[in-house]
Amino acid sequence: MGRLDDKVILITGAARGQGATEARQAAEQGARVIVTDVLDDLGVEVANEIGGTYHRLDVTGSSEWQLVVKEIVSSHGRIDGLVNNAGIFRPDTVLDANEEDFERITAINQHGTFLGMATVAPILKEQRAGSIVNISSIAGMRGHQAIAYVASKWAVRGMTKSAATTLAKYNVRVNSVHPGAIETDMLFDLGTETVDRLVRAVPMGRSAKPEEVGNVVIFLLSDDASYVTGAEIVVDGALIAG
Ligand code: NAD
Prior knowledge:
By secondary structure, this protein is an alpha/beta fold. The protein has one domain (8-182, 210-232): Rossmann fold, CATH 3.40.50.720. It is 47% helix and 15% strand. The protein has a 7-stranded parallel β-sheet with strand order 3-2-1-4-5-6-7, sandwiched between helices. Helix 4 (99-127) links the parallel strand 4 and strand 5. Helix 1 (17-28) packs parallel to helix 2, helix 1 (17-28) crosses helix 8 (210-221) and helix 3 packs parallel to helix 4. The chain is globular. The termini are far apart. Bound molecules: nicotinamide-adenine-dinucleotide. Nicotinamide-adenine-dinucleotide is lined by residues 12-13, 15-19, 37-39, 57-60, 85-89, 108, 135, 137, 179, 181-182, 184-187. The site of nicotinamide-adenine-dinucleotide has 29 residues, from helix 1 and helix 6.
C-alpha cells in the first residue's frame, strides 16, 4: 500500500529538479499525479514515465490556473494535494536589482503560490480534505543578499500560515518546506565556486538530493501528517541552525 494511494496531486514546476522528483515519488506512493510546468517537452516526458498527465501551467496566469484545475476536477472528480514548487532564483541585491526582475521573481515565486492556493482552496474546503505544500527556502527564514528571492520566499512562508489558519477548520492543511542546498539546476547555475562555498558552510558537510526534500513533501501530502498544518520544515543539513 502506498502512502498516497489514489490521491490526486498537482505539482507545479514538475518538469525537472525537485518538482519532477516529487512527481516520481508521489506516483511511487500510489498518487495520480498532474505534472505542470512551462517546459512542455520535459514535462510530458516526466508524466509519461510515471503514468501521470501533463498540463502546461504558467503559475503567474490566473486563467491558466482556473482552466487546469477545472480539467483535473472534471477528469478525476477531486484534488487532494497541491505542491507549489515552481520557482526562479536571481542573485540581484538591493544595490543592483531592477524593478522588472523583482516583479518577475515575485510574480512566479509569490504570486504564483497565492494563485495556486486561491484556486484550489474552495475545492479542498468543499471536500473537507486536502493538503497544500508550499516550497519556500531557507531564504524565507533569514536574510540573504538576493532581495527579490528573499522577499518572495518570506512571503510564501507568511501566506502559508495565513492560509493554514483559514483552512484548518475545513480539515485542509497548509505547510511550507524550506530547502537549503539541493542538487538541481537552480543550485548548479550558481557556479562551482559558490556551490562549494555554500556546501562548506553546511554542518552536514554536503548538499542534498532532491529526494531528501521530496520525502518531506510526500509526508506532508499524506495522511501521516493529519495534524500538521501551519508548520515550516527546514531541510538544510543544519545550515541555519547555528
Ligand atoms: P529548477 O530550476 O530545477 O526547477 C524549477 C522549475 O520551475 C522548472 O521546471 C521551471 O521550468 C519551473 N518554472 C519556472 N518558472 C515557471 C512558471 N512561470 N510557471 C511554471 N513553472 C515554472 O529548481 P529546483 O531546485 O527544482 O526548484 C524547486 C523549488 O525549490 C523552487 O521554488 C526553488 O525556489 C526552491 N528551492 C531550491 C533550492 C535549491 O538549492 N535547488 C533551495 C531552496 C529552495
